[in-house]
Design goal:
- This protein has about 350 residues and is α/β, with parallel strands linked by helices.
- The protein has two domains: about 250 residues, Alpha-Beta Barrel (TIM Barrel), CATH 3.20.20.70; about 90 residues, Up-down Bundle (Chorismate Mutase Domain, subunit A), CATH 1.20.59.
- The protein has 14 helices and eight strands.
- Strands 1-2-3-4-5-6-7-8 form an eight-stranded parallel β-barrel, surrounded by five helices.
- Helix 2 packs parallel to helix 3, helix 12 crosses helix 14 and helix 13 packs antiparallel against helix 14.
- Bound molecules: prephenic acid.
- The site of prephenic acid (PRE) has 11 residues, from helix 12, helix 13 and helix 14.
Length: about 350
């Protein structure tokens, strides 16, 4: 699949003065709840009203969604408020029912994106549709799998496509429910700059008090929109209570977010930017040169070790280097996370160099 300008046509055609906003409850619970939230969101920035109809739950026994009856409530939402509607589909039956009830935007959830069989079934069921179809990232940070799903839909002649970034599962507990791995989405944007990308801070954070910050980071990274779970009584929601916000809070979040433009034509800005970018180019070249030098020294160590039949990995020395560099980095305003990542990559490259020498 090649990037092309057509990819973002459906979004550009909406001519929005703000990022695309998809909001509504995690799950449709009752007709009253669905309609109440929709009326509260009617005259806000919200473009699509979302509600989960079928809920994929980690463990059995939890609320698994109201099912097809909820689609009737979504139809009522459209009639009464004019809001377009959106829901998650996970198989052919869901797709058929959603289309029957004229849902305007369908998304494939993270647990479905991991399965090419499911994605293909959904793509076949949606073949040629003019509805908007968005693909959430798979639960594991696998860019090819994510893009593979988009490609399947693209091959089924679905033109109004996009992706939703909802973060990735980890074994270790972090402050996020699903870690954002921003680097991965930056790579996606580099490869497909015209593929609309929506951020889902509700699932990334799992906590309503972190939603603003993640939304702002997403907008700073040129995301095209936000999907934020919104409920009239979040604490008593039947699913994902901790991460839902009230309609009032959503309006506040949208008001406080700083929306940045992609670029600016002003001459002074551009001349200063070119100057600073020239400095970055020089420094980047120095970095490459210095890395090359470091690897040459490592090659010499490799040759020495070969002669004396000594192992490549020297954990004590390596730990000492890491400890020193974290301290040095701190003094220069570099985070421990960055220093660790950078030096682990350098160490690996150094080991690869020595492996080549020691084994030839
Ligand atoms: O000091 C060594 O023995 C090296 O081989 C150098 C080096 C490094 O690149 O800094 C590489 C591998 C070892 O695990 C430790 C350190």
């Amino acid at each position: 699949m090649e990037n092309n300008k057509q990819m973002r046509k459906w979004l550009d055609d909406m001519n929005l003065p703000h990022p695309l906003v998809i909001a509504g409850p995690c799950s449709a619970e009752t007709e009253e709840q669905v309609l109440k939230v929709a009326h509260d969101l009617k005259d806000t920035d919200v473009n699509y009203y979302r509600a989960g109809i079928w809920k994929p739950r980690t463990r059995p026994g939890n609320f698994e969604g109201v099912g097809a009856i909820g689609l009737k409530w979504l139809q009522k939402v459209k009639e009464e408020t004019g809001l377009k509607t959106a829901t998650e589909v996970a198989n052919r039956t869901h797709v058929d029912l959603a289309l029957e009830h004229d849902v305007d935007l369908l998304w494939i959830g993270a647990r479905s994106t991991v399965s090419p069989f499911i994605v293909q079934e959904i793509a076949d069921a949606l073949k040629g549709t003019d509805k908007v179809v968005l693909v959430k990232n798979p639960v594991n940070p696998d860019l090819s799998l994510w893009l593979g799903a988009v490609e399947r839909l693209n091959s089924a002649n679905i033109e109004k496509l996009g992706v939703i970034h909802r973060g990735f599962s980890t074994y270790e507990k972090t402050k996020y429910r699903n870690i954002p791995e921003w680097q991965l989405v930056i790579e996606l944007q580099t490869r497909y700059p015209d593929l609309p990308i929506i951020n889902d801070p509700s699932h990334i954070t799992g906590k309503r008090n972190m939603i603003f910050d993640v939304s702002q980071t997403a907008l700073d990274l040129n995301f095209d929109g936000l999907m934020i779970e919104t409920h009239c009584d979040p604490d008593n929601a039947w699913s994902d209570a901790a991460q839902q916000v009230t309609p009032d809070r959503l309006v506040q979040i949208m008001k406080n977010l700083r929306i940045r433009k992609e670029t600016d034509e002003q001459a002074e800005y551009n001349s200063k930017l070119s100057n600073l970018r020239a400095q970055i180019d020089v420094i980047d070249n120095q970095l490459i040169e210095i890395m090359g030098k470091r690897m040459k020294v490592s090659d010499e160590i490799g040759a020495l070790k070969k002669k004396r039949n000594v192992a490549v990995l020297q954990s004590n020395r390596w730990n000492a280097i890491l400890g020193n560099m974290i301290l040095e980095g701190e003094q220069r305003g570099l985070s421990e996370e960055f220093v660790l990542k950078m030096f682990k990559a350098i160490h690996q490259e150094s080991i690869n160099h020595q492996e080549k020498i020691i084994n030839t």
